[in-house]
Amino acid sequence: MADQHNQVFFPSTMPELFSAWNRFPDAVPFAGGVELLRNQGKHVLTLPQNILSLEGLDELHRVTRTERYLETGAMVKISEIIRLGKIVPEALTQSLSNIANLGLRNLITIGGNICNPVCRLDAAAPLIALDARYELRTAYETRWVSASRFSALPGPLALRPQELLTRIRIPLEEWQYSLYRKFEESGGGAVFMARIQKNILTDLRIVFAGQQVLRDRNCETSLVGKQLPLDRREAVHFMELWETFLAAVEIPGFMLRAKLLNFVESCILSLSD
Ligand SMILES: Cc1cc2nc3c(=O)[nH]c(=O)nc-3n(C[C@H](O)[C@H](O)[C@H](O)COP(=O)(O)OP(=O)(O)OC[C@H]3O[C@@H](n4cnc5c(N)ncnc54)[C@H](O)[C@@H]3O)c2cc1C
């Protein structure tokens, strides 16, 4: 019979991690521990029976950069990513800077934020908009999944049993306009990004992530190729498309819909004359 005591494993290599996970399939990865220890004011903590600490896995703490990508290990802390400075896409820096407070940003890992099973957190919207990809590993295979597929809702995260998020690959394309807005009361956050070349809008991304993930690619492409500043009619037509899109999806609460419309409208107006 299995031992009923709590066990914490401290693997220092991936084979050690997967060997422990194989023996204890219910074991739960422990990154910064902020979610796992949330709301535990009691003397005795309530923890999963078997825990896999990710702290000792060096490769999960690495940050590398190529000409086209920034790659961070899943155990890199939110504050470490912010401290990387200008190489980090602005939309991501803005969203990460909105997470909790400095003390918690020193504990929360990018992987823990992405893998939170409860809802999509602050890092989700910009990583989807930036076309980030996630490396997922089991004992037997490694696969890459897009941030949008990984975090899609409804449904759980695209994590298989005994699968670990190991790396986050973020394309380093230039976005001339990036804005992240967190909706404190209704929850979630939205990102608006625009690429502009020679006064032409060449790419546009608008993503909301929270209890839902909202994105309308038709809306985005409707403005691609337009000369800036946008004329009023184009801006109004775009907002009509966005309203139609939002009307077609079920969004709990009137406030979130109103705030989203307001956010997108203010971004579009800043690109108009
Ligand atoms: C007071 C407070 C304020 C907060 N404010 C914000 C906020 O403003 N914005 C925001 O976005 N979040 C906020 N959070 C939530 C926080 O970002 C999440 O709790 C996050 O999941 C914590 O990350 P962690 O590294 O501590 O993960 P952990 O608590 O260690 O793990 C979280 C979950 O992810 C799983 N996991 C972790 N790493 C991996 C991995 N590499 N592969 C597979 N699964 C993994 C764990 O098993 C667990 O289920 C707040 C939390 C608290 C307690």
Q: Output mean pLDDT.
A: 94
Rg, alpha carbons: 20 Å
User: How much helix is in the residues?
Assistant: 25-40%
Determine the strand fraction and express it as a percent band: 15-25%
| Individual helix count | 10
> Low-confidence segments, ≥5 residues, pLDDT <50?
none
Topology pattern, helix = H, strand = E:
EHEEEEHHHHHEEHEEEEEHHH
The total strand number stands at 12
List its salient traits.
single chain, 273 residues, alpha+beta, 5-stranded antiparallel β-sheet, 4-stranded antiparallel β-sheet, 10 helices, 12 strands, binds flavin-adenine dinucleotide
Explain what this protein looks like in three dimensions.
β6 and β7 form a beta hairpin. The mean pLDDT is 94. With 273 residues, the chain is an alpha+beta fold. α9 packs antiparallel against α10 (254-270). The protein has helices at residues 14-23, 78-83, 90-97, 102-105, 110-114, 124-129, 147-150, 217-222, 232-248, 254-270, and strands at 7-9, 28-30, 50-53, 63-65, 69-73, 133-137, 142-146, 164-171, 177-182, 189-197, 200-209, 213-214. It is built from 10 helices and 12 strands. The longest helix has 17 residues, at 232-248. A 5-stranded antiparallel beta sheet has the order 4-5-8-6-7. The protein starts with 6 loop residues before the first strand and ends with a helix. The structure holds flavin-adenine dinucleotide (FAD).
